[in-house]
Amino acid sequence: MARIPKIGFVSLGCPKALVDSERILTTLRAEGYEVVPTYEAADVVVVNTCGFIDAAVDESLDAIGEALEHNGKVIVTGCLGARPERILERHPHVLKVTGPHAYEEVVGAVHEHLPPAHDPFMDLVPPQGVRLTPRHYAYLKIAEGCNNKCSFCIIPDMRGRLVSRPIDEVLREAERLVNAGVKELLVISQDTSAYGVDLKYRKGQWRGTARETRLIDLARGLGELGAWVRMHYVYPYPHVDEVIPLMQERRILPYLDIPFQHGSQSVLKRMKRPAHAVDTLDRIHAWRRECPDLTLRSTFIVGFPGETEAEFEELLQWLTEAQLDRVGCFKYSPVQGAAANALADPVPPGVQEERHARFMEHARVISAQRLKRRVGQTIKVLVDGHEGRTALARSEADAPEIDGIVRISSGASLRPGDFAQVKVTGADAYDLQAKLVSPPGTGLASAED
Ligand code: SF4
User: Fold this and answer.
1) Looking at residues 240-251, what average pLDDT do you find?
2) pLDDT tens per residue, range 185-195
3) Which of 290, 212, 218 is nearest to 247 (CA)?
4) Nearest CA to ligand 1 atom 4
5) Which residue of 141, 144, 146 sits with most ligand 1 atoms within 8 Å of its CB, as the best mutation to test the pocket?
6) Sequential DSSP letters for 267-309
7) pTM of the full predicted structure?
8) pLDDT confidence of 309, banded at 50, 70, 90?
9) Which of 194, 286, 380, 405 has the most C-beta neighbours closer than 10 Å?
10) What gap in Å lies between CA 111 and CA 106, rounded to an integer?
11) Is residue 225 helix, strand or coil?
12) Order of strands across the sheet with 96-97?
């Protein structure tokens, strides 16, 4: 029997990069490559890099260096690969550099340096592909690239303009994942609200019905699968209103991850954010009237060039009114090649630091107040794992990795991927404590059960 070729894989960056990694690995596994966990065991190492901010660039360059040191045969892909000169100037001996979502090129480079062994017994791959996330949740990438021009971001330069995946292809992939045991689908792209614009909302057939490649049809289709469906990277365009009733009916989770980035219209304008002129507070209030359980998560940037104390105060005031459930906050840092680098009046690091701390404290108080309201409620959770006898789970309001957790005392009988009903017994600023009220069920989500 031919020797099995072995691949090492380092995946850095955001969930979108993770999906790229999964696609590459799925292809390689299907071709009979084995994925191994150490540099030493690998014949070739693929490093999927991130180039979003300078800290991520450094981390990627270090990871390439480590792979070269311990293995020597390294193929680089991902966002940083869109700027090969940055890689080659520090690591001239990498075998190949490709940009993001260059699946075929990466696989081609692997073939060149480590040909596949053709063995029908090794050419098997699970129907859902190979995933790096736990078995019970999966990211579903619906599009690549972005048509916006936010001044702090170079993703459109690196990943190109929006390219949506046709709706039938996305829904078929989602169906395969659910059939393979996935309980939660996390919909991602750079701009989920723009889904289908590039395809002029082209129709596709799925389950005997014509569906348009657009957000509402995607939400309806995914809602038929019986899994939790969570929407990320949505912008507050008017047509997002259409999906709120599906959330209220629990066809999809009442959860929206919207990167608002700021609450001051003048800063948003300088950031060149999509929908910067929209009155987002009005929209949020209308959504909550229609779907009171809606969880809103967002990220913000403080210390953007020219941000005045008044504009920062406006942001805090906006946050008070918006009552967001979950927020993340970054201090602005220049990214090589971004238009915002040319803006006047950079905010000194000390002021950035101070605003970041004030923002986080403000958000912490809001989060704690909102979570306190959950105490005494019975909620449905999805179990992720354990810490001793305590089960660690998530509610409808918690995306994996980035939001809070629900700690279930005496939850040792629960298994990852179980749904369970729990009664909330306590809350802190970000997490909930709960006790089990119903035996674990692996049945899929509906709001009432
Ligand atoms: S929406 Fe803005 S921040 Fe997001 S990827 Fe597009 S250009 Fe970058």
Assistant:
1) 96
2) 999 998 999 99
3) 290
4) 190
5) 146
6) HHHHHT-TTTTS-HHHHHHHHHHH-TT-EEEEEEEES-TT--H
7) 0.79
8) very high
9) 194
10) 9
11) coil
12) 34-36, 6-11, 44-49, 74-78, 96-97
